[in-house]
Design brief:
With 369 residues, this protein is an alpha/beta fold. 44% of the residues lie in helices and 18% in strands.
């Protein structure tokens, strides 16, 4: 089975949509949050645990897997699904964000990007063609075009040139793609400028991709700017294709993104915050390191049905964190990912029931108490 997207229904009061991604490794209900498994693992979690909390698709990273253990090794072991024991959909990003985030280690040219490995200092040259080739070797269900993630803030002229180069790279990615069983998404760039975002979206749609992503956000801009740029982009993105907001974000970002027409999200926040003791709940964030948790026998979130909240207290989780026990990281991660995935499930149900506005109001009211 190849890739497809079915748009099921739309919210009457916003741009929110319900849909289904069809992939060779199964269907995915949207809107969806994708846990991040940067190096072929969602940190501290087994594939069975991810299945148990309702993860339908995960994300892995081209840059990191190219450097270690190498995409050809993964190809020899049957591709990323078999290598990591995950028989559900996978999306791989292009490596562009990681390359560009190491600004002191790279040089950008029209042909591609020369960069130094953050692991051993070795030099590499990543092109659109190589990025696609790596992702084809990995065998993900959805692969991403190589793009430049421009810094924030940046001059208008720079952003315009960067956006045009990203479009040229996208065309090269499409031309380089060989496998028919993988979907290729183009990435909309253009900084915080409406006309650049609209031109980027229009040019990518003219080339034609299986889906479209909004890149270059959550890079230091304010939340109102992020939401405004998202709204500009979704307004001109093809109606019948999935829309992916890359690297975003907080629970509030997910709600606001869905309302603006986004179908797919990813972010390291739930896993990274879990390892540092910050837990996401229906009433906001809880810092398990706080002294107030030291003798607290209640669960992290009384409204949560995850394994962690059913079995363990805040006091125990705080103890594990301060003792540096791996179990604490695991239990925190189970909770945070369960919260994110259950939030998306509730959003999907609210769209289907025609009560997304009421859901959004309730979501924020709980945080104001």
């Amino acid at each position: 089975m190849g890739f497809g997207f079915t748009l099921k229904n739309k919210d009457k009061d916003s741009r929110a949509r319900r849909g289904v991604l069809h992939t060779p490794h199964g269907d995915v209900e949207t809107p969806v949050f994708m846990p991040v498994g940067t190096q072929a693992t969602v940190k501290t979690m087994t594939p069975e645990e991810l299945e148990g909390i309702g993860a339908g698709i995960i994300l892995s990273n081209t840059y990191h897997l190219y450097l270690r253990p190498g995409h050809e090794l993964i190809r020899r072991h049957g591709g990323l699904h078999r290598f990591m024991g995950w028989d559900h959909p996978i999306l791989t990003d292009s490596g562009g964000y990681q390359v560009f985030s190491h600004s002191e280690l790279r040089k950008i040219t029209e042909d591609g990007v020369k960069f130094q490995s953050h692991l051993d200092g070795s030099y590499h040259f990543l092109t659109p063609e190589l990025s696609v080739g790596i992702q084809e070797a990995l065998g993900a269900d959805i692969i991403m075009c190589f793009d430049e993630c421009a810094p924030y803030p940046a001059a208008y002229d720079y952003l315009a040139r960067s956006m045009e180069m990203t479009t040229r790279w996208a065309r090269r990615c499409k031309d380089a793609k060989v496998r028919d069983d993988q979907a290729l998404f183009g990435i909309i760039q253009g900084g915080m400028h409406k006309e650049l975002r609209e031109k980027s979206a229009s040019d990518l749609a003219e080339i034609g991709f299986d889906g479209y992503a909004i890149g270059g956000l959550s890079v230091g801009e304010t939340k109102p700017i992020m939401y405004e740029v998202t709204e500009w982009a979704t307004a001109v993105m093809p109606e019948g294709s999935p829309r992916y907001l890359m690297g975003v974000g907080t629970p509030e970002d997910l709600v606001e993104g869905v309302i603006r027409g986004v179908d797919m999200f990813d972010c390291v926040m739930p896993t990274r915050n879990a390892r540092t003791g910050t837990l996401f709940t229906s009433f906001g964030k809880l810092n398990i390191k706080n002294a107030s948790c030291a003798d607290d026998g209640s669960p992290v979130d009384p409204e949560c049905s995850c394994y962690t909240c059913r079995k363990y207290s805040r006091a125990y989780l705080r103890h594990l964190h301060h003792a540096g026990e791996i179990l604490g990281m695991r239990l925190n991660t189970i909770h945070n990912l369960h919260y994110y995935l259950n939030l998306m499930k509730d959003i999907r149900e609210a769209i289907e029931a025609g009560r997304l506005t009421e859901f959004r109001n309730s979501f924020y009211n709980k945080r104001e108490v």
